[in-house]
Design goal:
By secondary structure, this protein is of the alpha/beta class. It has one domain: Rossmann fold. A six-stranded mixed beta sheet has the order 2-1-3-7-8-9, with helices on both faces. Strands 4-5-6 form a three-stranded antiparallel beta sheet. The longest helix has 29 residues.
Length: 241
């Protein structure tokens, strides 16, 4: 089971929502169990609930970020105070600047985190070329590589290579495609600011859909067993926020 979170509150998150929807389609076609949490449903409470219930090996987030947090549709979804929820998991983010503090903290606590130390840029469809499709293509490289069985380091390398491909393409098309020079610089910053925090030798283990009913019973048992600690986490978050 993988969890995909994607707020949908403005123009940038409209594009990232498109990316998350495409990833969900890939999972559906490939028989990969997933849950897509989107729009106003993306919140700190929803994040904790889903993580405790499903215990996912991979968490995917498309949306807005700050140095120490990922944002829900209203307020923070996960902050540096919540890193215990990301311990032992792989977290992939496509969000601004969250690697600077949150990504490093997750790695210190034994998790793996993909994130940027810079702003992340999106593309738009232009008359001469669909830049939006290209940017979404790069954003999907890492999660698709991970659910395909590649190690975290290899997935990261593929992302860098895909961004480099588009940078060189846009540079060749300057003067031919509208705004190719701007998009080349934007793609370059998406590449150069992006980091892998933690081990590059981790594989994500995703169950096949045929086991989902059995896994669901096991998840229910785990949820009931953890109910007390989950309440404590919620209460502490509410007091400290």
């Amino acid at each position: 089971m993988i969890l995909i979170f994607t707020p949908h509150v403005d123009v940038p998150t409209t594009i990232s929502f498109d990316a998350a929807s495409r990833l969900a389609e890939v999972c559906e076609r490939g028989g990969v169990p997933f849950r897509l949490v989107y729009g106003l449903r993306v919140s700190g409470v929803a994040f904790r609930w889903k993580v405790y219930w499903y215990d996912p090996p991979l968490i995917v987030y498309f949306g807005h970020g700050r140095e120490d947090r990922l944002l829900g549709s209203y307020g923070g979804m996960v902050t540096v105070r919540d890193v215990e929820l990301l311990r032992g998991r792989v977290t992939y983010t496509m969000a601004c600047k969250s690697g600077r503090v949150l990504g490093r903290k997750v790695a210190e606590e034994g998790g793996v985190y993909f994130g940027s130390e810079d702003n992340m840029f999106a593309g738009f469809p232009e008359v001469d070329h669909d830049y939006m499709g290209d940017f979404i293509d790069t954003w999907l490289v890492i999660p698709i590589s991970l659910i395909s069985g590649l190690r975290t380091g290899e997935a990261y390398r593929r992302y860098i290579e895909r961004c480099t491909y588009y940078v060189r393409l846009y540079e060749r098309m300057i003067g031919e495609w509208d705004n190719a020079d701007w998009y080349a610089e934007a793609m370059e910053r998406n590449r150069d600011g992006y980091r892998l925090y933690g081990s590059g030798d981790v594989r994500v283990r995703v169950e096949s859909r045929g086991l989902e009913s059995v896994i669901g019973l096991f998840e229910l048992w785990k949820f009931l067993r953890k109910a007390g600690s989950m309440f404590n986490v919620w209460f502490r978050w509410w007091v400290e926020r």
